[in-house]
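ParA family protein: structure tokens wanted.
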Amino acid sequence: MSHTPFVVTVASEKGGVGKTTIATNLAVYLKALREDLPVTIASFDNHFSVDAMFAIGSSAGPSVRELWCGEKTPRPTLGEYGVQFFASERNLCAANDQTAQLGKVLAASSLGGILILDTRPILDDFTRSALAAADLVLTPIKDRASLVNVAAVQRALREEGNDEGRLWLLPSLIDRRLRLREGISMEDFLTFSARERGYQLAPTVLVKSPRVEGLATGFARRTYPVLTHARGTLVHGQFRSLAHFVLERFDGARHSRQSLRRLPEVADAPSLRRLAAECPLCGEAAPRNSGWFCEDPARRRRHLAHGHCIEPLLGEMAEADVLPRGSVLVVDKPEPGWRPEDDLLVRGFGPHAEDLGRRQWSGHDKQVFHDFLRAVCGRLPEELPTTRVLLSKLDDQAHCGLSPEGYRRFAQLRRRVLRQLRNLPPIG
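Answer:
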């Protein structure tokens, strides 16, 4: 059994966006939320912030050089708050064309759990190696300049062959008092601009907090975490949400190093390379010849799901006399966010995109869809914009899309259905 750790890389080409604060505090929160999970942190930067938070006494133990050079199996030091760490190095030397070396060292190690890598504000060999080894990349953004620089991180991921939806943007150091032109907040500007560019956003933001900034500034050499010294701040809850998000990604990768792996049976269908074999509701493997095919077109996420998991949510809309073969159902969330007063609908469309009717949920009844949207879309519904998830029964494989020809038919119907939905008048 492989003990390769799940690697979370915190990276940005721009300095001053909170990378180290995120990396160190995330490690503490992960360990607090799951005490039996090994959590390790290392930094390729030379500011020694990791040591200032986690070192016990004056002995720092093995350094990050062991991760980079790969001379022997890396053995981190157990530090404060139960977090393991590698001591920082002031003069860590880079070797050309060694960006794959870190992944090889980790594959041969027995670290396990989660490894958090803090990187330099430059795309050097160290940062590129951390990106190449990453299972999840968190890129903080606090202004337009840092948002523009995300393109460089994404390009580096692609160059390292690691651009499979691993990059997530995290608005950081957000001053909610600041207003841009026309009264737009920086948070709204960054969120809208990131989505417009097609980036994935983590389900929280980290606001600017003088109290949190003061934890790393003072006469003492020790740096203190938000968890123990800023529990009354908004940032405390935001770091907890971020840690839950990372744990969800970690749990999803435990069964496979790629949580959205391609099924061997559909290897000749390029459009299905993101098809996940696990049912999004129960997490168990779903068969290809029964149940449902689920697709979130906006985020290009596709799942197989059990009929006994999906059909109780859909009610009579999933019955055979209502839904002919070759039809699709659309779980339609017309408004951004998640509020009790908003509408949530399930709409049916026939094999020629004809309208088969709809069912509307409100109040506590629609809460049954909360976990469904969260699992299928990979985001908290509270953070989702207008969202539509398509469902097709697998009893008609020629249509539902588990073959190249079948998927082409499904894609044609999907385009017609989404075009119809865009042209529908507002609900009311």
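Confidence is low (pLDDT under 50) at residues 255-271. The first strand starts at residue 6 and ends at 10.

Cheers.
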